[in-house]
Amino acid sequence: MNNDLLHIPYASRRVPLIAGNGVVATSHPLASQAGLAMLQAGGTAVDAALAAAACLTVLEPTSNGLGGDGFALIWDGAKLHGINGSGRAPAALSVEALERAGQGTMPTYGWLPVTVPGVVQLWGDMHSRFGALPLAQVLGPAIAYAEQGAPVAAMVSHFWAKGVAAAHERTSPEFAGFLKTFALDGRAPRAGERFRSPGHARTLRMLAEVGPRAFYEGEIAEAIARFSQATGGLLTADDLAAHRSEWVEPLTMEYGGYTVAEIPPNGQGIAALLALGILDGVDLASYVRDSAASFHLQIEAMKLAFADIFAYVGDPAMAEVPVSAMLDRERLAARRSLIGDHAQDFGPGELPQGGTVYFCAADREGRMVSMIQSTYMGFGSGVVVPDWGIALHNRGCGFVTTPGHPNMLVPGKRPFHTIIPGFLLKDGQGIGPFGVMGAHMQPQGHAQVIVNSLTYGMHPQAALDAPRWRWERDGSVRVELETPRHVIEGLMARGHQVIAEAEVGGFGRGQIIWRRDSGEYVAGTEARCDGVAAGW
């Protein structure tokens, strides 16, 4: 990345981190420091990312955990690798099983939306291929925080209180482990209060000693399967034992002379590429960043992208996902031509024939990792395996029951996924990782920080700090309170239903690391979370 992105064309109260030997950027300062310690001990960017990943399951259980999924993009210094760490539906989970349970659609909480957790296997596969330090050393900081405790961060405490309040309303047997694991005398820990998680430490220690497959075939797997059977779950030991990660070829899109990479479906990263591909033929730079015209064009491009992915994206292993056709440049030009001066509702385009934490790391040798993991919707399904600290995710609620839809629930299928890591390249060389967490905000956040960086020349911190917008499926556009009034009024004049919103976490939380031509790193992290970019 050239020096131009170090100047400040946009008013930002914070400056980026600049470091020469490596950077770890996460949503929690202690997780960033744990990753940095791995770099200073001679570890790779993957070692650093995994140390941070494990710590985040302890320090920020409101967003991720051992019972969740994850994805990563890894630049090894010469090539970009993708890995899909999402789990599949249990063999017994089907539309018919939902109907027998009295459910017409996928529920949000309880056992039914629980798919096989993939993040622990993801850790193991990343470490075995790209790690340098022993896994026990990499997991060491997380084990220490789980056993000895750590002060709860301010933003985390906010979401923790919401999770505990909701848990008090769930009384069936599968929810019995939640408050025992995550509450102190029935309440959420307060900001600055030390929280310990002995069950979590027990699981991490076993993973360090036996290896990640213990989660899927050993004592941990047996505990998960027993609890499932005892409390009405469909997840079995066979489902866990069958799980594997998948190494995948990243999808790419050219924008502004750079190449943006995302993980292919079953995730929604393709939505960011579609929006950027549409915008690549628009002269956004002719409009100032904080203008209604620029916001309008970006919003309409994003709406076109979402219309496509909601119609066409599912698990490519079990349903055809026409990725190449969706990303066809001529098709994107046709989609671009639909954008007018006023807000519109879009359907999917014709095809040519033929609860989450994001973090990133970079090391002295130029290897870089873009990684994300989640239990979804905060603490996930609300189901916690007693004595093991494992909060199980609810990714299955991403399935639909519409016959023939590519994302229709089928046993053994991976659901549509919201969590996506991003990566930027230039002329085949890695520039760096980026990401913005937060459900369907994620591809919208990806598109906005790339536009901020490449079209408007913002450094990483400014690109993250700038006010964001968020399109909702009800047709409304939410904007942050810091959005200039003339932008809001201009969008409304163009027919957008605009709502200024102060919701904590509603506009995503992200990190960016760019590598300069000279080898130094420039990094930023969100003001919307507790995070920090740590470097040396």
TrEMBL record:
Any single Pfam family the record assigns to this protein: G_glu_transpept
Keywords in alphabetical order: Transferase
Key word rRNA-binding present: no
GO molecular function: transferase activity
Recorded superkingdom: Bacteria
Listed name of the protein: Gamma-glutamyltransferase
Source organism of the structure: Candidatus Chloroploca asiatica
